[in-house]
Amino acid sequence: QSALTQPASVSGSPGQSITISCTGTSSDVGGFDYVSWYQQHPGKAPKLMIYDVTNRPSGVSNRFSGSKSGNTASLTISGLQAEDEADYYCSSYTSSSTWVFGGGTKLTVL
Amino acid sequence: EVQLVEAGGGLAQPGGSLRLSCAASGSTFSTSNMNWVRQAPGKGLEWISYISSSSYTRYYADSVKGRFTISRDNAKNSLYLQMNSLRADDTAVYFCARGLRAFDIWGQGTKVTVSS
């Protein structure tokens, strides 16, 4: 199972919006609405930010939103804050009854 | 809230074995589907194994199939990962994580180094 494709890095200024893409295939992202997004700060465990493509867990800021079109899912962060600087990973369930992550995207808040 | 604490990491020789454990607090462990996810140094996340709440269903990534075995003991609120035939590329931080459609609770991770 190949990793989902994410940009290696994105950046934005405080207050701006950024979008991170996550491209898979019809056997994973395109075939199931089980796409999730995780935030990971250095040396810390990942934190669930979005599940089932668009849903936010309790306690996650509404500045984080998710969407999907075809084989590509996206995470949008609006009103960027310094604390948003972290690595972000997408994940999807697959037709092989496994899960696959993206390669990760480093978000820099300028 | 449920908390997960991994243990059992350390240094192992190539071809050797290690057994990781993940202790869960709270009363919901027995109804929770569980996973192991690893992260090699400076690399991204890699899902490696899943076990259903009843242990009936288990899945593995190709990279560990036949070498690693996931198990659980609901009476002890514990998840395990038996790792055999370890290779250098198994070096990583290993996280246990709860969930089926997404991984909503994670442990802090335990570090495994495979080296001679």
Brief description of this entry?
The complex is a heterodimer of chains A (110) and B (116). Chain A is mainly beta. Chain A is 0% helix and 44% strand.
Largest interface: A-B, 24 and 21 residues
Total number of helical segments of chain B? 0
Mean pLDDT of chain A, as a whole number? 97
Instruction: Please identify the oligomeric state.
Output: heterodimer
Q: Tell me the distance between the termini of chain B.
A: 40 Å
Tell me the fraction of residues in β-strands of chain B, as a range.
Answer: over 45%
Shape of chain A: globular
Nearest-angstrom radius of gyration of chain B? 13 Å
Strand content of chain A: 35-45%
SSE run of chain A: EEEEEEEEE
What level of helicity do the residues of chain B show? under 10%
Spans of chain A of at least 5 consecutive residues whose pLDDT stays below 50 are none
Describe this structure as you would to a colleague.
Chain A has no helices and 9 strands. Chain A has strands at 9-12, 18-23, 35-40, 47-50, 64-69, 72-77, 86-93, 99-101, 105-109. In chain A, strands 1, 3, 4, 7, 8 and 9 form a 6-stranded mixed beta sheet that branches. In chain A, strands 2-6-5 form a 3-stranded antiparallel beta sheet, with no helix packed on it. Chain A is globular and about 40 Å long. The mean pLDDT of chain A is 97. Chain B has 116 residues and is mainly beta. The mean pLDDT of chain B is 96. Chain B is globular, with a radius of gyration of 13 Å. Chain A binds chain B through residues 1, 3, 34, 36, 38, 40, 45-48, 51-52, 57, 89, 91, 93, 97-104, and chain B through 35, 37, 44-47, 50, 59-62, 95, 97, 101-104, 106-109.
Topology (SSEs and partners):
The complex is a heterodimer of chains A (110) and B (116).
Chain A lengths: L8 E4 L5 E6 L11 E6 L6 E4 L13 E6 L2 E6 L8 E8 L5 E3 L3 E5 L1
Parallel strand pairs in A: 1-9
Antiparallel strand pairs in A: 2-6, 3-4, 3-7, 5-6, 7-8, 7-9
Chain B lengths: L3 E4 L2 E3 L5 E7 L9 E6 L5 E7 L6 E3 L7 E6 L4 E6 L8 E7 L6 E2 L3 E5 L2
